[in-house]
Amino acid sequence: MICRELIELLEKKYPPSIAESWDNPGLQVGSYEKEIKSIYIALDATGEVIRHAIDAKADLLLTHHPMLMHGLKKINDGDFYGRRVLELIKHDIAYYAMHTNYDIVEMAPLAARMLALKDAQIMEKTCVLPDGREGGFGMAGELPKEMTLLQCAEYVKDVFQIPDVKIFGNPETVLNRAAVLPGSGKSMTADALRNGAEVYITGDFGHHDGIDAVDQGLNVIDAGHYGIEHIFIGQMAEELKERFPEMEICTEPIRHPFLMV
Rounded distance, CA 185 to CA 83, Å? Predict the structure, then answer.
């Protein structure tokens, strides 16, 4: 399949037009006319991931986070961005990213399904999707059963296979309703509160973000940015295998970017 054809099919479901204005999804490196027979899926296009894509003899590297978010004035081997781009070009690997357009269509709904949230609703509606459904950021719904904050933290760790999480709030607080926003969620604390959440499951919460949320009656489970968003890898692999059975699909192993010691 030609790269252009593959992108057109992907973008029917995940149109770049619905992405946030600051975002940069799409084909970032490579030719639209390249023949694509194998795809390597990861969350980020790090140097290590690119080496793994090379070893897998991938024709296309597909990530969630765009490697290039700002304009480059030079592309050379004097900096790590340049080295990444040059490695992709040298090994004839096209590189495509799908970021907030994927978030709006699939990321939070997938996380809500994995958490078995009942009667889940979008926290912030932003658009109408190509299939006529409403799209947006975050989901809020009822937990599958009543649980304490500590029990909910253990539940989140189990569902997303996370070694540890950070909690803000009294561990013994009893919870019934949750909001979930994979990635960085501190900017949507007010939306979680507006949707009646008692606990907010997200990532990238700082000291003041957490204590201010608790002061407003919202407990927080910070599962890390990678901690929940890594579900992109498995979901996209399943979708691509189903939609393009002739395509070879490889995935980056789940490897958290830091350790708690």
Answer: 31
Distance, in Å, from the CA atom of 18 to the CA atom of 258, rounded to the nearest integer, reads: 31
The predicted pLDDT at position 71 comes to: 84
C-alpha torsion sign, points 50, 52, 58, 61: negative
Token pair, residue 86, equals 């040059």
Domain boundaries, position 155? 102-228
- Are 45 and 57 in the same domain? yes
Cα separations in angstroms, 174 against 59, 146, 201, 219: 50, 7, 15, 10
List, for residues 88-137, the tens digit of each pLDDT value. Answer: 999 999 999 999 999 999 999 999 999 999 999 999 999 999 999 999 99
Model pLDDT for residues 205-218, shown as the tens digit of each residue: 999 999 999 999 99
pLDDT of residue 260: 86
Does the pLDDT of residue 164 top 90, yes or no?
yes
Q: What's the domain count of the chain? A: 2
C-alpha 28/C-alpha 98 separation (Å) is: 10
Cα 152–201–102 angle (5° rounding)? 135
